[in-house]
Design brief:
The complex is a heterodimer of chains A (about 150) and B (about 375). Chain A has about 150 residues and is mostly beta strands. In chain A, about 0% of the residues lie in helices and about 45% in strands. In chain A, a hairpin with a 3-residue loop joins β7 (about 85-95) and β8 (about 95-105). Chain A is globular, with a radius of gyration of 16 Å. In chain B, the strands form 2 sheets. Chain B has a 9-stranded mixed beta sheet with strand order 3-2-4-7-1-8-12-11-10. In chain B, strands 5-6 form a two-stranded antiparallel ribbon. In chain B, β2 (about 45-50), α2 and β3 (about 70) form a beta-alpha-beta unit. Classes of the chains: A mainly beta (about 150), B alpha/beta (about 375). β8 (about 95-105) of chain A pairs antiparallel with β9 (about 245-250) of chain B, so a sheet runs across the interface.
Chain lengths: ~150, ~375
Amino acid sequence: MTTPTQRIPISANLFAGSLDSPRLLGSRCQACGETTFPAQEGCPSCTSQKCEPIPLSPRGTLWTWTIQRFPPPHPYAGDAENFAPYGVGYIELPEGVRIEARLSVSDPDRLEIGMEMELALEAFGRDEEGREIVTFAFRPLMGSDENGSQ
Amino acid sequence: MDIAIIGTGLKPFGRHDGMGAIEMGVSAARAALDDAGLSWAEIQLAFSGSLEILQPDTMIQHLGLTGIPFTTLYNGCATGGNLLLSAAHAITAGAGDIAIAVGIDKHPRGAFSVGDTLESIGLGQWYGETGLALNPQYFAMKTRRYMHDHGISEDCLHRTAAKAFINGSRTEHAWRRKAIPYDEIANSSLVCDPLRKYHFCSPSEGAAAVVICRADIAARFGSEPIFLRADVFRTRLYGSFETLSPSTPVKNAPSPSVQASRAAFEMAGIGPDEIDVAQLQDTEAGHEIMHMAECGFCADGEQEKLVFDGETSIDGRIPINTDGGLLANGEPIGASGLRQIHEACLQLRGRAGRHQVPGNPSTAFTHVYGFPGVSCVTVLST
């Protein structure tokens, strides 16, 4: 038997609950109902201090997108030497918020405004203890997955 | 507002290897003082700003230690706009009669970095580590959505960039002085789809300075005064889509550029249809196009025909970025907004030479926009 690789998020407070069924952690204002990601206490919409953490829907639609075609400068933690372009987009969730994320797809012919997307995890190197560091990404809901996301 | 611009000066934007940013600021300040016919000893208030230089006010060592208040501020790409506004407000408040605003910067080559820690711009380190903290991505994504919603074509992007480089080729102090042909722009490499290499401005180096005074004493000085009819600074409202945003609400709100422009036109009592020449923040071609509508010069989508018909060219109905804008001059962040004021004043005084707008323009508009959703605009007149 092989031991499953341990995974840790690239930052605490990005995810709600277990990485086995990942959900992003946002916050909803108890006064005005607006949702923000990452979670925060103060409301950017109505100025209340009554925002409560909530897990966000793992599915949404692609609002806009681009392809990052040059290696990002410091403090990029990805492989800048063997750089491969990656997709970036905003995914509109039913909570009324659009989340900026890496996309599992970097082929512009496979991306279209309005297409359905779902949350995925993307490996982002390993820490000193050999644990896999993961961040969040979105992938086309029905499409095949070409770029290594799970 | 009862403020007159009596002098402007540039250390032309570009690359100045071996010259420090402070030295560039001193050079621009002296050029503006010469233009106004003033000496540093007559300046009562000073304002400076920069991204790379922590204390640009140290230029006072070279200008002269006269004991005046010298304020330093930073507001991203809107810094130059806010330097002028703060100087104007200080005079209006009675703190003095004559002020100078000096913006400087000296950026390393390549895309802007957000710095060592994302905390310095209020974001989590993960945002930079995962490759999301890049302005070009935002420029591209806002442009793509706008093109989708309002029927703007890639042709419009190419034509807007080509116009910028034509204007740059006609401006002696511009950095990019080659009129890059349409096909070379259209075939240049993609940076962040749909934006290509020649759609973007580059970080650069340079300085710009503006001397202002109470309007009622402007006639004392030798230069031809230009009047500041409105000067407005706004930050974003909840619902405006801004750069470096891990999330943005579906709920929509007017951008800071929209808010600032509306307030400025109202304050000036001059409408966008009465403006003879405009300088708009053009970090890339997409944003010049979007800012045309945000600042009130056309409705969303009308840019396609206006640009195709050449109406934003120097001899068009609403000439935009007549010195080539950011595309042809690059962006030393602290100085960029004051470069626009310099160009607007050249146009209104009829001193712009080969990039002069014909027909004796008498009204001008300037606009800067930057992180984290800030905009400063001015309305100027002869």
